[in-house]
TrEMBL record, chains A, B:
CDD domains tied to this protein: TOPRIM_recR
Ranges for domain Toprim: 82-177
BP terms from Gene Ontology: DNA recombination; DNA repair
Organism: Bradyrhizobium shewense
Zinc finger (C4-type): 59-74
UniProt superkingdom: Bacteria
Protein name: Recombination protein RecR
Family: Belongs to the RecR family.
Length: 200, 200
């Protein structure tokens, strides 16, 4: 294809292929689509990326990504200063916001501890979290981490570090996903859902 | 998410979601990935798109997409002027080039006839193809169109129009895909593969 379409298009395809969710084949389709929808899609997308490059920053308080710093959540006076929701990634923060799951503020760790992948405490924003937890306004740290080995390892590690802070440390409930079918769930989830059952 | 991440990021997500292969969820992941890989990916991709916007054109001869016009294939002196391979879309041209399937030149129709979708002959570059077929250097028109109802309707329509031109009109063979398993193939393919069997 390089010889046919020229190195400029080949480069566009190769860069698109590095987006999560796009393989080499779909990157070619995406490049063609962009070229065909030149005015309607490629020009606006190039300009949206330029705007993002110019404006988007990492919040120095919580690690969220936003066009203002501190971010919209950190500066929102209606948010509850008493609660910090700890997430591994900005994607998790976005997911919780879409679900309207909390009125608290956030802390983005950047990753979970993963000894196998060489991710240690120094790679996460754990020191900053511990400092925030010692703010007298903060009463609860909610660990909204994946229910995976790495997520739970991280949760335990953080819980230990927060012993001295005057905060309650909580984590998300285990249970049946909304719309989930019982006979597809693993036994750990089912027994946790049974233990944590609520009044109907 | 709009309220959390700001309208600039929301717009980036919405534009990415219009790429084939990316839904709303993967568009969010792609946007986050771009923001995190600011220097390594978002800057080069924005600039590759700007280069494509500045340089990429539709070949006025064959409909291929390239940074030169006429395109690399049309201007390549080593290509065979006697053969024009007719494809519906530039993606098909790229696929044939990757396969090194032909030394001929191309003609991109832009679509296939599709009465149900309101795509008629006037929406395709058929007039230009007929004109090219009357060039005395051209001896064969290979219809490399999808083996679908619309593809075959288009093939028949073009074949009729080329009655007066002094060219042989051919189409791709039907058969067993390389690596394909017989018991997954439909009966039409199997009987065509049998009829068009070749010496071992
Ligand atoms: Zn923030
Ligand atoms: Zn051309």
């Amino acid at each position: 294809m390089g010889a046919v379409a020229g190195p400029e298009i080949e480069r566009l395809v190769q860069l698109l292929a590095r987006l999560p969710g796009l393989g080499p084949r779909s990157a070619r389709r995406a490049a063609l689509h962009l070229i065909k929808k030149r005015e309607a899609l490629m020009m606006p997308l190039a300009s949206a990326m330029q705007v993002a490059l110019d404006k988007v920053q990492v919040c120095k308080t919580c690690g969220n990504i936003d066009t203002q710093n501190p971010c919209t959540v950190c500066t929102d006076p209606k948010r509850d200063d008493a609660i910090i929701v700890v997430v591994a990634d900005v994607a998790d923060l976005w997911a919780l916001e879409r679900a309207n799951a909390t009125q608290g503020r956030y802390h983005v760790l950047g990753a979970t501890l993963s000894p196998l992948d060489g991710v240690g405490p120094q790679d996460l924003t754990i020191d900053a979290l511990v400092a925030r937890a010692h703010d007298s306004r903060v009463h609860e740290i909610i660990l909204a981490l994946n229910a995976t080995v790495d997520g739970q390892t991280t949760a335990h590690y953080i819980t230990d570090l927060l012993q001295d802070a005057n905060v309650k440390v909580t984590r998300l409930a285990h249970g049946v996903p909304v719309g989930g079918e019982l006979d597809y769930l693993d036994e750990g989830t089912l027994s946790a859902a049974m233990r944590q059952r609520t009044l109907f």
